[in-house]
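User
Here is a favour to ask of a fellow structure person. I am asking you to supply a protein in sequence and structure-token form. Please set it down just below, with no commentary around it:

Assistant
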Amino acid sequence: MVEVYAEIGARLAPLGLIPRGGFRPEPADGVPALRDGRTAKTLILVGNAGAALWEVFPASPEADDGQANPLDRWTERVLGPIAAALGAELFFPFGDGSHPFTRWAVRAEAVAPSPIGLMIHPEYGLWHAYRGALAFAEALPLPPRVAALSPCEACETKPCLTACPVGAFSGDAYDVPACGAHLTKPAGKACLEGGCLARRACPVARPNGPVQAGFHMAAFFRSLTKAGLAGNG
């Protein structure tokens, strides 16, 4: 019986979001206590994969209001009522809270770190994200976690490490200043407008059009600029 999990999926579908697995939290998972002091006994991750989100979000008020963090604000707005209806508490991978979503993702799904640092999914490659987590005080039934090897283990050429025009990725480190400097130059236009070339080089999956790739790169570039890391090369 996975009625609640199926209900979550049905509520998320019109938003272009999906439930992305769940697990029974253990102390080492770092799941905060709920507002009433109880311990979360079930954590279900919410995110996107594939093109569905990018058919919904661009038409939202947040996408075109000119304010900061449009996707985060949209996420909070649309997930809040769902959490309230299900009696769940929401945790986000953004904002003031610092939650170990990478650890939670590995507990919930067969994802693993890629050579460029992003988590890779066996089907969706590097084009997926976690938008939030629903925490329940009850131990709810969950679908089993499906184990799978990381696609990177069988990838011999690893094009993600050679596609970057400035060699920002070594497999062990990421040269943020070199990337930021490149994005401010005419030669960086292809990355800035079409998305990170290293990310796009992954053979597992491709971005679902320029909106998805361009949105993420634009947000990344704004964060570099805010941190003073763009144009200093």
In short: The mean pLDDT is 91. The longest strand covers residues 128-136. Residues 3-149 form one domain. Strands lie at 18-23, 42-49, 89-91, 112-113, 119-120, 128-136.
